[in-house]
Design brief:
Layout lengths: L2 H12 L22 E11 L27 E14 L4 E10 L12 E10 L5 E11 L20 H6 L5 E11 L3 E8 L14 E11 L3 E17 L22 E20 L2 E20 L2 E20 L2 E17 L3 H8 L9 E12 L2 E11 L5 E13 L2
Length: about 400
């Protein structure tokens, strides 16, 4: 267990004293789906430097990456544009849609294409002591709050290292789920996915499944949310499409590397938490964090070369923050650790080609941010990042503007 993990658990434990009187918050907000809504967001960010140069592929040493985990680029970038809506069909049925553009970063050739991120139908029971809901279509997962985060909703413009390495940054997939919520603050659900989002690739046996439970508590001055989850993802010949030979690249992308495929199962488990204390007028303190453990078991293959692989990885981040009126200061500390075991005659070559060599490096990153709600629906963001996720350390600063608005 690394230092960040111990710190997250210690703070979460300290922040949960026995409350004499409290109200249980509704974490999944199943009782809030009875209203129509239309929302929009735009995020633009200038960065002083890119995560990697034009001749380097962005692969954190020791990790099998993929999905939409593109490195940030220098200069002005359109990080996000989206519009989302919900339409209430009747007391039980509703429809949700979301379309947007996400700046995918250096090397991506489709950063300006519009993607349908959400398109699903839902049913919910009448909410009394319990609420039940069923949803099906294309959705973001609910097992962790980070799965639905974007630059317009999180403190930092860059995704966490956990999202980039374990989930390919953006997890949108076709699937179905069953959810429940109680007046006691306990909620949860089971989700089944087709397997079109990293770390899965659709197989005959199915894509991936997850189960989660969370507890939400609210008093007059304190809000607490804690959650546990587990996931299993299956993959057949999953390759890193970002830099593989079957992907069309822009002129400035890194040289291609061998398309090493992973076949096997990945089991992931995680804990997340968030605490906010409104300790005085206009003042609040907060802390949030997440810990994830992953085990990928299967084999790597490229042409006729095959090697068995077992990859055991952990990741954690913690984010303390202070809020005063329309200003927020926050720091996010992140760390990853991985142990890889390969067997077979082709193991040495496939270890190099797949990027699983890390030479003892544990990727780390520390970021600081100042958010200023400058005008109604407009926020200015100032960031400083000390990036030690690659062998060559890098630092950069970023200045961004966020527009979020409820249109209806």
């Amino acid at each position: 267990m690394n230092h960040l993990t111990r710190l997250i658990i210690a703070i979460a434990g300290f922040a949960l004293p026995p409350f004499a009187q409290h109200l249980h918050a509704h974490g999944l907000q199943l009782d809030d789906v009875a209203t129509n809504s239309l929302n929009a967001a735009v995020v633009t960010t200038w960065r002083s430097a890119a995560a990697v140069d034009d001749t380097t592929a962005w692969r954190l040493p020791g990790f099998l990456m993929g999905g939409e985990s593109w490195p940030v680029d220098e200069g002005v970038n359109l990080d996000e544009v989206n519009i989302s809506g919900r339409y209430v069909i009747d007391h039980h049925f509703y429809a949700v849609g979301k379309a947007g553009v996400h700046g995918t970063g250096k090397g991506s050739d489709h950063g300006d294409s519009v993607e349908i991120q959400h398109a699903y139908l839902g049913w919910r029971s009448r909410c009394k002591t319990f609420c039940f809901a069923a949803e099906a279509g294309k959705m973001s997962a609910l097992f962790s709050p980070a799965m639905a985060e974007h630059p317009s909703t999180r403190h930092f413009s860059e995704a966490s290292l956990i999202l980039d390495t374990f989930f390919g940054r953006d997890f949108h997939d076709q699937g179905a789920r069953i959810l429940f919520q109680s007046d006691w603050g306990i909620s949860g659900g089971i989700e089944h996915w087709r397997g079109q989002a990293f770390p899965s690739i659709a197989t005959e046996e199915g894509g991936n499944n997850d189960i989660f439970i969370r507890y939400d508590l609210a008093t007059e001055n304190i809000v607490v949310a804690l959650g546990l989850w587990g996931m299993r993802a299956d993959a057949t010949n999953r390759i890193d499409h970002r830099y593989s030979a079957d992907h069309t690249h822009s002129s400035n992308t890194a040289p291609l590397f061998p398309s090493v495929g992973f076949t096997g199962k990945t089991e992931l488990y995680g804990i997340h938490g968030n605490v906010r204390w409104n300790f005085a007028a206009d003042w609040a303190l907060g802390v949030s964090g997440e810990w994830v453990e992953s085990e990928a078991n299967g084999f790597l293959q490229h042409n006729q070369r095959i090697a068995d692989v077992l990859s055991e990885a952990q990741g954690a981040w913690i984010q303390p923050s202070v809020h005063w009126r329309n200003h927020t200061l926050a720091v996010r500390a992140e760390q990853l650790h991985v142990d890889n075991y390969l067997e077979g005659p082709a193991a040495p070559a496939l270890t190099l080609d797949s990027g699983l060599t890390n030479n003892g490096l544990n990727p780390e990153r520390i970021s600081a941010v100042w958010l200023w709600d400058w005008k109604r629906n407009v926020t200015l963001r100032f960031e400083a990042i000390d990036d030690r996720s690659l062998p060559d350390e890098a630092s950069r600063v970023a200045v961004g503007i966020i527009w979020r608005q409820d249109l209806y």
